[in-house]
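User: I'm writing a tutorial on reading structure tokens. Could you give me a worked example: one chain, its sequence, then its tokens, then a sentence or two explaining what the tokens reveal?
Assistant: Sure. Here is the example chain.
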Amino acid sequence: MTVTDITKHKLFAPGLSAVLALYYTLPFLLKITWWGGRDWDLFTTMAAVPVGSLLDYGQFPFWNLYLGGGNILFHHPEVAVLSPFFLLYLVFGAVVGLKLQVLICYFIGFYGSIKLSEQLGMSTLAAAMTSVAYFGSVHFALHFAEGHMPFTHFCFLPWFLYFLLRSPSGLKHLLAASICLVLMILGNGAAIPLLYTLTFSTLLVVLLSVTQKSYLLLKNLALMVVAALGLSAIKIIPMAIYLLENRWVGNPDESIPLGALGSIFFGLTHSLYARNFPEQFWAWHEYGAYLSPLLIALALSALVPKWRRYWHWMVLLVFFLILGLGDFGWFSPWSIVSHLPGFSSARCTGRAFQFVILAGAILGGFGFDLWRRRFGALSKKRWLRLLPYAAAVIVVATNLGFAWPIMSSAFKTEAQNVQRFEMFSHVVDEKPQAYKNYLANRGSLITPWLSAYHPSRGLVDAVNTVHMEHVLSGKVESLKRQYTPNRISYVLSASEAGRMVISMGYDRGWRAEDGRELRQQQGLLTFDFNQGTDRVVLVYRTPYILTGLVVSTAFLIGLIGVVATVSRRRIQAPSVSG
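And here are its predicted structure tokens:
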């Protein structure tokens, strides 16, 4: 059996994707119960809180008690409650479940990148190299090691593009592409992955429409986006309204100097702790985007003779390279798009470099096939025929070599036994330890970025002691208090009616069971209490979730109807005999 025979086998692509996924995540799996630092602490907590809401309290995960003095949960763009990945958290717990999510997403991403590359016309070997060059890049390894769970949902991007390009051939591909976006939205990817996926896809389709002189793909893209937003309305509608009411501030003035591009794309120092240029503001996971010089050489060798065929990939590469440089003047793409919805809340311009890698990897795949055909047809010397394969092996081996130490640096803390306190309270720590606090039934007022529109909220005095309530007026004694995810109850004994503020962030969605008015005092929940024994019960429900559920249900019924109608027409269509 030849190499060609092996690559043509139907199990080659998924089998190779599984092997690659296992290799990349093996450092995670070898420390399956260990805790991660940096942003792993934040996203482990964000995965654990909804699990605890359901299993420990029997409450649907609407509100997050444990981060930033109280925060939104269900409609947070980076919280996966309705995603299939949430089942992993339920079954295996947040620590193990998130690592399995990375494993599965690596498999989906590698496999999807192979299928996309083949759809573009590459051989399977070229597609395999392209897949590793893109989804096996330093860029993703750094983000996953950092704990950026939203970035795992870029695994749906190559599948979305694959189905988008195939959409003219049938309704099923259009629906499959919509489902890719739905999985992204309902998972951790409703912010950066969705924003960049739609941006890249729209630009690609516009360029293809110009080339093909047809707007069918553009129309299909619009239909896919509408269908996806409709199906995921249960999350999109509450989320969009929340973000409109509470603007998340981005970084419109951020920029990366031209001199840093050498270390970003061609440098050999890639780790979470690398400092590679003087102006580096973020940690290296927001910059690293290594491209092998051999891959660039292969890409250029495809562009020179086939410019009219591949020019749109070069345009995309240059656009996202310039976008990633950030704000270098009023005419820079970042300074323009940073005023648009979505991008106005974005930061870390280097995240755009992912698409420089994608476009470069695709062009490199085309170059590999070009040289493989040329050397195979023109050269009688075996070593010359092997040159394209040697280049591909080096490209792949370089990414594999970079990835292992990066992924091995993520987990340095063995699982700990944590005493859980019966009564919830907030705490101020010297450094973030949100997951440990969650296990102890403590809320972390010192946390990484979660909701950028406001800082952590709490009743904290000058020596960093947190008070769970404070009397603004009247005279009252708290006989009992209980904090659960969506429900806070107090039993008060007041000799004089007045007003009290509690150490819980105020957001629209909180209400009192007895209908008393709730107010906010410096971002915290405030209510009036009555003289005598007064029982106060506050409950939270995500605003507009029922509206979203109705819209999602209507879209689902409508799409089922469309599919049934199309299928019935195909069955009833008369056959044509020759």
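What the tokens reveal: The chain has a mean pLDDT of 93. The two ends are 40 Å apart (CA to CA).
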